Amino acid sequence: MSKSRPASTTRFSSWPTNNPLRGRRPDAALGRSTRRPIPPFFSPSRFPYIRTPANTSSLASLRLSYMKPLLCSSAVFFALAFLFESLLPAAPIHLYPDSATVANPLHPAVPPVPGGSAGHCMPIEAVFAYDLAPHLTFPANTFGLTVDLRDNSRRAAKDVLTLIDGDRKLVLRFARAADGRSPQLVLENFTPDPESGTISLGQPWGDVWTHLVLRWNQGQLICQIAGQPPVTLALSGGFAPKRLELATWHIDQLSLSAAAIGTLSLDWENGYAATLELAHSPPSAMPAIRLHGFDTYAITTAPGKRDTPTLQFINPADTPRTISIDFNLRGEVGPAATAPVRWTQTLTAPPRSETLAPVTLPEALASDVYHLKIRTTGLADPSPSGALAVVELDTEKHFFHAARRSGEPAGTPKFGLHDANDNHFGSWPDALGIDFAHVYSYWGYIVGPAWVRDNNGDYGIDPATPPAEWNWNRRVDWLLGQNLTTYISLQSEPLLPWMRERTYPKQKLKKYEWGDRGGYPNLARYRQFVRALATRYQGRVLHYEVENEPNAGGDNGIPPADYVPIAQAVFEEVHAVDPSARVYGICGTGNFVPWMREVFKDGGARYMDAVSIHTYVTPQLPEAANLPQKLGEVRDIIAKSGHPNLPILNSETGTYVALREEVDRPIPDARLAELIRQGHPGLAVARGWPNYALSEREGALSIVRNATWNFLAGAERFTFFGWNLHWPAANWAEQAASGSGDGGFALISATKDGIRTPSRHTLAIGVLAAQLEGALHQQGRAIDNAGVLGAVFPKANGGEVAVLWSGMGKRSVLIETAATVTTPRAELVTLFGQTRYLDGNLHAIELGDEPVYLHTARPGIRVMSSPVINLRLETGEPGRTAVSFTLVNRDRAQSWADRVELPPQQGWRFEPASLAFNLAPGKRTQLAFTAIAPAAPGAIPDASQRSFVIDAVTRLADGTRFTFPVVLEARPTARLSPLPANFSQTSGEVSLAALAAWQPANGDLRIDMPDQVAIGRPPRLTSIQEEQFWAGPAELSARARLGGDRDGLLVYIDVTDAHARHPRRWPDVRGSVVELFFDFRPPAQSTTTPAYGKGVYQVVLRPALQPGDTVEIWNASKQHGILEKTTAFGAPRAGGYRVAFRIPWTSTGLPLDPATGGPTRAFGFDVAVDAPFPADAHPSRADQRKSQIILFGSATNNVDTSGYGLVVP
User: Of the candidates 85, 103, 301, 590, which lies 20 to 30 Å from 174 by C-alpha distance?
Assistant: First the structure.
């Protein structure tokens, strides 16, 4: 490469680099040759001293090897060099489809194949768009186009080629089958009459390649199909196309020419590149730079890949052009988070040509979420008028990199990506090394779709239509074309009357303009569809799933007895065509185990080769949602089914994670908690599930732990939900405000302004895939020792990888590995991919809730026993907990002397806060301290926290920090607000209006969070909102206020109840009621005896729901005593009601302060509100309670006081 004029150079102001692509000829690195014939004037025989360039797309490849001795000065040399450069023919410019239609188009996602009209063609149907302007212009409104076209049997109309100039479009279309499939020329917005713009071009020609010529010259359009007379049209107004759109399968040998300017050619011989050959620089010639490799947000540093960041510099001018590009790379969790990397690259492009060069990223790019600022210098060039025709590129790219483990052989394939309605061609993230693709196939979409009129004027298509004419899912062909293992989820839901045999007993069909959706399928018709689908993909698709989450949807789900014959139909039809294929049954979500048990009881196991499951747990963590136990139940059902060897596959699981406010950082935890508390759309889900969004860190650790538990249960695959480059929508904040807040499931995050970026949750998934790539994941062994959870998996290279985390709080763990002289180190990788090495064979590692990966070159990872054992807690008086534990010196040779430190944390303090010890080898000692709970706060907006994990810290004998957790329990507490003087309970009934306007000093007690739902709460393992569950605060919620003066206690509750209706019988709780709970017993009794007894009361209030109603009081615990002299009043309001309840202090039995008249100690308290099903619910639910939501406790409050909170005077 010429030193004087390099095509690409790099200057770093930070980390040096040796990128693998540096120093290589860009086109060669990308596997493409741009060699072109040399015209006679430049033949070697005429100028033997000129060496023919091997690649004229790079200036540096022009070598004047014999010319130097002839030059008298360097000035003459450069003058002649410029002369020869200007006379040499320009190498072609390559235009690639825009990123809106094809992600990362520099290298084909699906390569062209033989079968074109002359050479290659595209084997899949997709729409590619190429921007013609500013590179190819038509200043005289004159152009010529030639192209070879073919049609296929699909019934829908196909726009196979479109030229666009503003709002004017020239379209080549194959009419739909119902209109004869004829080729048509459609002119949009050329005339006021839209009907006059469609011209038939003769009879259909099917899938035979047919040549077409189109010429436009000063308002005259001539179109001719091979072997037919031309069609000539006279049209007013100019037409200079700026954009070309085409349907890939239908097009070959396209050539678009602009007189005296140049020609654009597309023949699929150079991937997706259209070749632009310029005769000379067009009048509007403007240089351009395009950034390739960033479109999927996941990049690789390997050379020549689709997702390798690459620069393409296009120079349409008649002179060479050089630009410089400044880069500023910032990370979020790795080294570049604190030390951004800056560098400059220089690119030179010959006249009317291009240069390709990789972005020179740091050589050892760490795993991280990155934000890369890019700015050019030299791209802008003043136009003759003095204005800048081209501005400098000033942009930012957001992406992540998960470093793969180089040199290790791959283990068993284990991860997949779910369909997620991803319609962007090329969006598969190759950089992640994931090869398993889930995709839906809907009966009503493919044999249809149902919403088009293609059945003699009726909706849908004729059921007798041959399969070749159906609307097959093109995404299946995309995935197969990319050599991905494709998993088809079949959906039998009827969309047309001929597809439906009957409805389900309680199902509410979804109503659309084109008809009803839902019901039990006509199995004879459905079998025809399944057989046709299996035939189409025979030998290429080996995985078929029977329905998606058929147990979900409440009354709209598929009953087990009906699911079995559907599974039988799929099983028999698939295997009749392809015996080697697998059929997966169940595909359960949420609390699917009882439904699965019924399916197996009805014989369903006979009609499946494997079981698929979904294990959503958000917003809980897997352990809190009892995921390990649920997976154990699945295995147990299979083991007892008579088909004990059925494999398990997780075909979809995701996590609901908060989207971003700022593009380069997650929402901080404190702000996220506040936004959730405020019910911010998109972060708090009003309709019950998934309740609220997790932070990116919580989402990351949840999905890793979820996958680990699945693998320990034998899951063959774990499939991530949410990979879609266009989800959430750019206006997701507006959509969330209107009630559609599911964007948090997307694996690509976005700001409220629509700027997309990977999140740390995305990064953690990439790190998980990379760290377990070499694992034999179905041979793992569980770790549950010394408070440590996780798994150890053997690796294909003979080593092991452990995934480890603390079961509760921070804790240090002693881990033994099999280090040798040749493999002395273990490698520890964090949740987000940061790496460090551990020497020796015994390691003290501090674990938290974030999983870490521990790699060893040999098997033998073992978690040692903890030096902290026998941790005991004993609660005495309220707010004080006695804690004791035993410390063991497990070293048999060395003494251990230090202190256990207990610094104040989370409002707790400790007496003593430092515990000294001195242990001889092998000895133990008991240590103890008292934990004192936080001082009683005001009214608690979030009453859910009862457990606090605090850290105790010491040091091992070698000085290594050692942490262990202590879990403390504390009852939620609310303070009693003083009532204003005019609220004196001796002066008569206080008006509800005054109570509503009262602002208590300690605030309201909110009863509106999903975690407070006791009855009607979705199961812990759930994944959709079902109508039988609590539908959110708008359906049922409340705010309570507690006040007191010298005369007594006042409880005021404002209830939102969308279906307010009294219980059918009274007294009863199966309707709209308020339940109040009091425990006035002495502390020694209330903290040790949760059972009801004297001093414990449950009071149920029947509210006033109509004007003139009175509030009725039911002492539901009267067998233990009745609260005397209580009063209640209330009134209805729009969307709910208000009630107030008063108790004289003298009726409570509490000790009273003579000075204030109020109580001198705390007492137990709780409040619940109940609501019925809607009036139009199924008759079986007319007299049932739908929901109960409770401030502090649980549905057992009527027999157990342990869930009550404390009210402090």
Answer: 103
